[in-house]
Each structure stands twice: as C-alpha cells, then as structure tokens.
UniProtKB/TrEMBL annotation:
Transmembrane segments: none annotated. GO terms for biological process: DNA catabolic process. Residues 1-18 form the signal peptide. It comes from Sinomicrobium weinanense. This is S1/P1 nuclease. It comes from the Bacteria. The lineage of its organism: Bacteria, Pseudomonadati, Bacteroidota, Flavobacteriia, Flavobacteriales. Keywords: Disulfide bond, Endonuclease, Glycoprotein, Hydrolase, Metal-binding, Nuclease, Signal.
Length: 258
C-alpha cells in the first residue's frame, strides 16, 4: 500500500513538471518574432505556406496551448530534459517518454519528411518553434528533484511564487513591454555577430543552458524575497536567452527549409 501511494505521488509530481509552462506567452512570442527576422527568403515562403500565413510568434505557444487536451498528453515530457550531475546528455538512458532533445529531433524528422501529411508537418513545426524556445529557458534543463525550480518557493515582490515562474514569466511581465517591443529592443548585429550566437548544435545548446541553470539555482534561496535587485542582476540574461532562442530557431528552420 505504501509503495502504491509513493508511486502515485511520484507520478503526480512528474506530471506537474511535465505540465509546467516555459517562458510564458510573451517570451515564446519574442523568440518567434526574432526568428522571423532572420529567416531566409526560401524558408519564409515554405513556412508561410505550411502555417497558412500565421507568423512564428502567433504559433509559438501552441506547445503549451494543447496541454489541456488529453490527446496530446504524450508531448508533456518533451518540454524539458534532466541530466544527472556529472553526466552529459546521452550518457544515461533517455526516458521512455522522451525529452526536450528527442522531441526536437522528432519534430525535425517529421517536418523534413515530404511524405508526411501536411497537417502533421505543420503541427510538428509549431511544436519545434515552441521547444527551441523551451531549450533556452535554463530551468528546463534543470534538476529533476525540484522539477526545474518549480518546487523552489520564493517571493516575487510581495507575492508567493517559485523560481521557475520568476524566470518563466515574472521578470518578463514586470518589464511591461509587448513581445514586439522586446524583440525590437535589441541593438543591430552584423552577420558575423549573428553567426557567433548561432554557433553549435542542439547538444551544445543543451550544455549551455544546463550550465546557466546552475547559475540560476545559485541566484536565490528558498523563501527569499526577489524584486528590483534581482531584476537588475538577471533580466539581461533573460533577454540574452530569448535572443539566442530566436536566432537559433532561425538557423534550424533555415537548415530545414532553405
């Protein structure tokens, strides 16, 4: 009986983690909006046809929107990846439910499959746009034991919340700018600067986010009250990650469709 209760609690905890939201609607739209600016002409035309004219920003939250529909429950584990301390991705068996890395790889595989139904390719394109955004929220390459910071309770000004939520949406919402305003607030970059931020592959980006997650965990203590100073110290990192997410999403889409 005790074992059954423990397994039930573990299952509920894992589903809570699977159903957590990343970046929030504004953050995901920023990633989509930035990516749109760096698409090749060929990729833009093919994506426009597949999405029937909807922008990357408009569909960027589809991966979260479908969570309320039990038909899409299997995609819950694709929003994050947990890597044990001292290990690199791939050194341990992947969950039977998949993870953020296998989810992105599967999306790319189906989008590239010209024999796949157009409806399926469009669906997985929307998921890919979302998951590349997820990858750049550091706590989605966080620790399994605290569900990517969801179990680390803190205060945001006078409201109770958790560390994941602070990085997901609290700082972005406190900035009080629309996704188009945030996407348009970055300084211009040379082609060389863009390529520099786009360097690496999927596993390189996983490692980068994982390292950053360690810094995020060290940035706050359980129960700590976070506010203006925390925003001052860390919102630059949030903006940098949103920008990287957008530029790297553009790189992936250009490789698929270009």
């Amino acid at each position: 009986m005790k074992k059954a209760v423990f397994l039930l609690v573990l299952f509920i905890g894992n589903m809570t983690w699977a159903n957590s939201v990343v970046w929030g609607p504004t953050g995901h739209r920023v990633v989509g909006e930035i990516a749109e600016q760096y698409l090749s002409g060929r990729a833009r035309r093919k994506i426009d046809k597949l999405l029937h004219g909807e922008s990357l920003a408009v569909v960027a939250n589809h991966g979260d929107d479908i969570k309320s529909d039990n038909r899409f429950r299997k995609y819950g584990a694709w929003h994050y990846v947990n890597i044990p301390p001292g290990k690199r991705y791939g050194e341990e068996a992947v969950s039977e439910y998949g993870d953020l890395v296998t989810g992105i790889e599967k999306c790319i595989e189906i989008i590239k499959d010209k024999n796949a139904p157009e409806e399926d390719r469009a669906f997985y394109l929307k998921l890919l746009i979302h998951f590349i955004g997820d990858l750049h929220q550091p706590l989605h390459v966080g620790r399994a034991e605290d569900k990517g910071g969801n179990d680390i309770q803190v205060r945001w000004f006078n409201d109770g919340t958790n560390l994941h939520s602070v990085w997901d949406s609290k700082m972005i919402n406190h900035y009080r700018m629309s996704y188009t305003e945030i996407a348009g607030s970055y300084p211009g970059m040379s082609r060389k600067e863009v390529k520099k931020l786009q360097e690496g592959n999927l596993l390189d980006w996983v490692g980068e986010s994982r390292k950053l997650a360690g810094e995020v965990y060290a940035s706050a203590e359980i129960g700590e009250k976070l506010g203006y100073r925390y925003m001052y110290d860390h919102f630059g990192t949030v903006k940098a990650q949103l920008q990287k997410g957008g530029l790297r999403l553009a790189k992936v889409l250009n490789e698929i469709f270009g």
